[in-house]
Structure formats: structure tokens, C-alpha cells
Design goal:
- The chain has 374 residues and is mainly alpha-helical.
- The chain folds into 2 domains: 69 residues, no CATH class; 300 residues, no CATH class.
- The protein contains 12 helices and 9 strands.
- A 3-stranded antiparallel beta sheet has the order 3-7-6.
- Strand 1 and strand 2 form a beta hairpin.
- Helix 3 packs across helix 7, helix 4 crosses helix 5 and helix 10 crosses helix 11.
- The chain is globular, with a radius of gyration of 22 Å.
């Protein structure tokens, strides 16, 4: 869309200053950022009547960025022979400041399921192993909740997915800076799963959009982690509008140690409240994930505690299409499942050099002992 407007000399000077100061690409970036921030401040004023702005940290120079200015600065040293400070910030759309406790609009009905609680689920019908982290899911439902304040009827998927993926790339920069600053690597790294902004950035955003936002088939079937966990649903078949479900909204408004907490060395992706909500929801309403959790916990109880041992055990499980279940697919399914279970605190990893084994936590034991139909 192209909008032509009359610009005073003072406004032109302000545009130039903002573009230069915040490293934005062009005037459209400045105007977009200004409109988004104005809408955010206006909504906060309507809700609270006043806003107290925090003291701003000293500004440091940064490389040009083509995205809206944001909040919660991290400063890290870029790698190379001459380290330079880099300004990285948390995108506003992932913050919780303006979100009400009660949703401002009707939410999507919880999708039905082809499996019932406690029913064995073929390994190729488990949640796809490439959906290996839960912080991206948290970030996406938070972004959707903020966007729904302006679009209460739901969000068209062809607009929602690329928009959230673009903001998630900025969040990935923020988390990568956090990881570098606090020396978080491998399993602890928070940026894993988020799109990159470097080489193949378009493909990275498309992957995130499909895996951690949503995609839809010609038959109107939703796919992606949020759909598999029933955190989103379709409110309009004709316009293909996506809406959060009740558990999706509940997850969005809960405080998160990364998105809402002070910058620290924490590697916890979810709060205890977020873990409890997801565990209860999965146990009651997501039979495929519930069955997979119980299966892996049972294997570990039997002494199958290494990746290879679990792969061999999972490979022997029934599949709906056995020809498609390759060794690589089994490893992907096991690896992604283990990561999600670790995010929920159901299992923990024990590393000894390059060797890794898995332990059942008290939370995992409690989960396995509860009724499958609870």
C-alpha cells in the first residue's frame, strides 16, 4: 500500500533523525514503527490512564536494521578481531504490557481429535520432531494475543504467519545476543528454533512460519506446533482466519522468564506456571503428545537412557505408514520429543563429554503416574 501525505520541514527533520539514530532502512520503516508504537501507547493510556516510561539505557551505535524500534536492550560484543557493541532489543509484539486477563473477543473452539486419551498413537502420528522447542510456541501465542487486540475477528493466515515470522527473526537476534552475553550454548541456547537474519533468512522465516505459526492445506487442515497442541484454531473456513483457543490465550498472558523477566543468565524457557498449564492441557486434550511422553518415560524407566537406545526402541513401535519411517525420521521424532519434554521439566539431560543420557524428573514421574484420561 502506498500512502502520500504532506510532510512539514520539522517532520522531515525528525524522520531523518529517527532513521539515522535507530538504524532503520528507510522512511517507511520509521513511519510503520511510529504507528505501531503510537497504537501501543494509546491502548495503554486507555487501559491505565497514564504511562511511566523506564529510564533508557545509554544509546550505543548499531548496524542498520529494517525493523521497528523495540524495548529491553541487551548489549553484547560482536565476534571478530575488533569487538564492537551491538544494540539488540525485544520486539514489542512479544511483550505482555497491554494484554488483559480476559480475551477481548470470542476464542476458537478447541479442535477435535482422531485419537482418545490413552490410545496408542503410531510414531509417525506423533507431533513432528522438528517442532523441537516450546519457547517459539510461547512467543507466537504472545504475538497473536497482541495482534488480536486490533483484529478481534481473527487473523488471516496469509498475513499472520509472515508477520509473526518477521518479528520472530528480531526476537532471535535478541535471544542470540542473550546467549552470547551469558555463554549459553547447545541445549541451553534460547535462540534455537527462531529464524535467522543472515544467509537464507527468507527460508528461515518460512520455516518458522510453517512450524511455529501455522500453515493450512487446500482442505483447510491446520498444521504446525500450535495446531498440534491445540493452541490455535480456525474461526472462518472461508477467509481462513486463525484465532487462539482458550489454552492458547491462557499461555499467552502468563509471564515468561525470557520475554517478561529482567535480562539475566537464565536458560529457563518457561515459567513454572507455563509448564503446569501446558502439561495439564496436553494430558487432557492432546492424546498424541501425551502418549509419546508416557512412552519415552517408560523406556527411560526400563534403562534405555541414551539417544541410540531410545531410537532403537522407538523404531520398533507401530507406524501408520511403515515405509516412511526411516532411521533419520525416528531420530528426528525422538530428538524433538526429548527437547519438548526437557522444556516442560519432565526429563533432564546428563552430559559427560560428548555422551548424553536422560533422567526422569519428579515432574516426569508424577506425569507418568497420573491417569491417561485425567
Amino acid at each position: 500500500m502506498v500512502i502520500v501525505f504532506r510532510c512539514s520541514p520539522q517532520a522531515k527533520e525528525a524522520l531523518d533523525q529517527l532513521k539515522e539514530r535507530d538504524g532503520l532502512g528507510d522512511y517507511s520503516d520509521v513511519i510503520n514503527a511510529a504507528l505501531v508504537n503510537y497504537a501501543t501507547l494509546s491502548a495503554a493510556l486507555d487501559a491505565k490512564g497514564a504511562i511511566v516510561l523506564p529510564e533508557i539505557a545509554p544509546r550505543v551505535e548499531s548496524a542498520p536494521r529494517r525493523h521497528a524500534p523495540t524495548v529491553a536492550l541487551h548489549t553484547v560484543e560482536a565476534s571478530g578481531t575488533r569487538p564492537q557493541p551491538t544494540r539488540v532489543a525485544l520486539p514489542v509484539v512479544f511483550t505482555s504490557g497491554n494484554l488483559p486477563t480476559d480475551p477481548p473477543c470470542p476464542l476458537a473452539t478447541l479442535p477435535s481429535d482422531v485419537f482418545f486419551p490413552g490410545q496408542p498413537v503410531p510414531v509417525d502420528r506423533w507431533v513432528f520432531g522438528q517442532y523441537s522447542k516450546l519457547l517459539p510456541a510461547k512467543a507466537t501465542v504472545r504475538a497473536m494475543a497482541n495482534l488480536l487486540l486490533q483484529h478481534p475477528g481473527g487473523l488471516p493466515i496469509d498475513k499472520l504467519s509472515p508477520q509473526v515470522a518477521q518479528e520472530a527473526a528480531l526476537l532471535g537476534q535478541y535471544l542470540e545476543a542473550h546467549d552470547q552475553q551469558h555463554g549459553l550454548k547447545r541445549d541451553e541456547a534460547l535462540a534455537t528454533g527462531f529464524p535467522s537474519t543472515g544467509e537464507n533468512a527468507d527460508k528461515s522465516r518460512l520455516r518458522y512460519a510453517n512450524q511455529f505459526v501455522a500453515s493450512i492445506s487446500k482442505q483447510g487442515q491446520l498444521s504446525g506446533l500450535l495446531a498440534d497442541l491445540k493452541l490455535i484454531g480456525i474461526t472462518s473456513e472461508r477467509t481462513r482466519r486463525i484465532q487462539l483457543t482458550t489454552p492458547g490465550w491462557a499461555l499467552a498472558i502468563l509471564q515468561n522468564p525470557i520475554l517478561d523477566g529482567p535480562a539475566s543468565a537464565t536458560s529457563d524457557r518457561l515459567s513454572n506456571d507455563e509448564r503446569t498449564l501446558l502439561i495439564e492441557h496436553i494430558a487432557r486434550f492432546v492424546p498424541a503428545e501425551d502418549y509419546a511422553f508416557r512412552t519415552i518415560i517408560e523406556f527411560i524407566k526400563q534403562g534405555l537412557t541414551t539417544p541410540d537406545q531410545l531410537d532403537d526402541a522407538v523404531k520398533k513401535l507401530p507406524a501408520s505408514k511403515k515405509d516412511n519411517v526411516t532411521d533419520a525420521f525416528i531420530t528426528t521424532q525422538r530428538s524433538g520429543l526429548i527437547s519438548r519434554m526437557a522444556d516442560l521439566g519432565l526429563i533432564s539431560r546428563l552430559r559427560e563429554g560428548v555422551r548424553v543420557s536422560y533422567l526422569i524428573t519428579d515432574t516426569g514421574t508424577t506425569y507418568a503416574n497420573r491417569s491417561a484420561a485425567a
